[in-house]
Every structure is written in C-alpha cells, then in structure tokens.
Amino acid sequence: MSSVPCPDRATPDDLRFGVRRMTPGDADIALDWAASEGWNPGLDDARSFFAADPHGFFVGTWDGAPIGCISAVAYGDAFGFIGLYIVSPAWRGKGFGMRLWEEGMTYLGARNIGLDGVLAQQPNYRKSGFVLAYRNVRYEGVALADDEPVDGVTIADALSVPFERLLDYDTRMFACERAAFLRAWLAQPQAHARACIAIDGDSVRGFAVIRRCGTGHKIGPLFADDLPTARALYRALVSGVQGEAVFLDVPESNPAAVALAVEHDMQSVFETARMYTRAAPDVPLANVFGVTTFELG
C-alpha cells in the first residue's frame, strides 16, 4: 500500500490532494493494492481493464503520490461498472474515498451503474442510489478434475473460434457489448480460454477463461447453456492446473452454478453484493456459472 505518510490534519480540501486519470503504471499499483486487500487479482488484469475503458480509472494523490483509486468503466452510453475502490489504510476515514467516489460516479453520469461491493458496505452504497440485485459468492478449491465429454459438442481453444461468435454469446450473457475488453481478456498471456461448440452447427454453447492470479487461478467468465456444458468447460480448464488452487465467483441466485462449485469440493470464502442504480440488466443468470471479474462485472 501507499508509503506516503498521512499528516494528522490531511483533508481532501487541501491543495496537496488531487484526483487524476490513471496511467498504466498507476493501474499496476492499484492491482497491487487489490492484492493487499486479499482480492487476488489476475497477474495480467491491468491491460484488459484499460482496454475496456482507458478513461475510466482514477487515482487520488497527495503531493503527487498515489493514496487511493477507483475504476468507473463506461461500457458504451448506457451501462457502467464501479470497482477497484481502495484507499490506502492510513488515509481512510478522512473523506478521500468520497472524493474518488464522486469522481467515478460523475464520469459515469446517467448510465445504469453496477458494482460488486463487500456486504458490510451495502448501506453506504444504498445512500448513493444502489439497490441490491443478488449476491455473488467466491468459491475456492483444488483443481482435481479430468476433461469430461458432453454428447453433441466439442471443447475447443476459444481463440480458434471466430471472435464474433464469442462476442455474440458474451453480449447475451453480459449487460451490453464489450468487444475491446473481451478481445484483450481472451488474449492474456497467462490465461487459457475454452469454448463449447455444437458439433452439428458450429454454434457456441458456452465459453470460459482461466487466468493466473497471485494465488492460484481464477475462472471467469464461465458462461454455458446448461450445467453439463459448464461442467465440461470447468474440467477442461482445471485439467491444465491440477493440484493448484482455483477460484470461481458464482451468482448465488443460480443454483446450478452453486451445484457446480459444490460438486468439485469448493468452499465459500467470500461474498459480494451485486447492486445497480437502476433495474438489474436483463441477463440470463441461469447461464452465468462464473462472473468475469468483480472489478469490471
């Protein structure tokens, strides 16, 4: 976290405090802070995050040194997502976080805004107009599964599938199109992506990504037409990291996703509150077996 000493009378009105847009170097610092908070980000997340919206990341500084951050990613004109909301511990409780929050919310403007917040902060988010939609649960386990065939489909390297087919599937599972982000997410140097393709028509029935993190590997997204397809994708991904820690963030309101985690001996270790400023997007949660990332939705 920040090594900048916090003066006893530091306030966000002091001219030594400022908020500016992040640089790629700042993003690396923000993800280091996220790791310190125990959020376990992916080792290559920064590049993909910036691809989603290079203008939607902000850093709070004192005498030019970073002391806090927030992401406010605009997915087009209608939807945005708040994440990476962190203030260095020594600087908390003084109003700096609120200044960062206001910067992010102002940037997103009239969009429907989502976030995955820690449960204890729900009252504060409600004050800003957010309403609980459902909870997401992080499950942790050990990768101990072999590939499992599913009748009528084949599991393929997602990068061998025409990108537009994956994008079309992703758009149906997310709140809107996110082509730039998805292209970068699939191409992460320490990630593997698999797609489930129907043998009789080349249609996509699901896809998933596993990426290396500070601890173990995270799977996200894991989108699938049904539980057998999700199971096959999960097993195809973890078969390459046998014996290592693996994490899956699932919507609690999808019982099949919870069942997938439980049947692979995964344990609940963390929860977030998925909240929106307007009605929850019309996303088929029955097909969301793994959230892409708590930071960007």
- CATH architectural arrangement of the largest domain: 3-Layer(aba) Sandwich
Mean pLDDT: 93
How many helices? The count is: 8
State the low-pLDDT regions, or none.
none
State the end-to-end distance: 24 Å
Total domains, how many? 2
Q: Which overall shape is indicated by the principal axes computed on the Cα atoms? A: elongated
How would you name the oligomeric state of the polypeptide chains in this document?
single chain
| Count of beta strands | 13
Binned, the helix content reads 25-40%
Domain N-acetyltransferase: 17-151
Keywords: Transferase
Organism: Caballeronia cordobensis (Burkholderia cordobensis)
GO molecular function, one term: acyltransferase activity, transferring groups other than amino-acyl groups
Walkthrough of the structure:
The protein is of the alpha+beta class. It has two domains: 17-110, Gcn5-related N-acetyltransferase (GNAT) (Aminopeptidase); 138-290, Aminopeptidase (3-Layer(aba) Sandwich). Helix content is 27%, strand content 34%. It contains eight helices and 13 strands. Strands 1, 2, 3, 4, 5, 6, 7, 8, 9, 10, 11, 12 and 13 form a 13-stranded mixed sheet that branches. Strand 8 and strand 9 (204-212) form a beta hairpin. Helix 1 (24-36) packs across helix 2 (45-52) and helix 2 (45-52) runs antiparallel to helix 6. It is elongated. The relative contact order is 0.17.
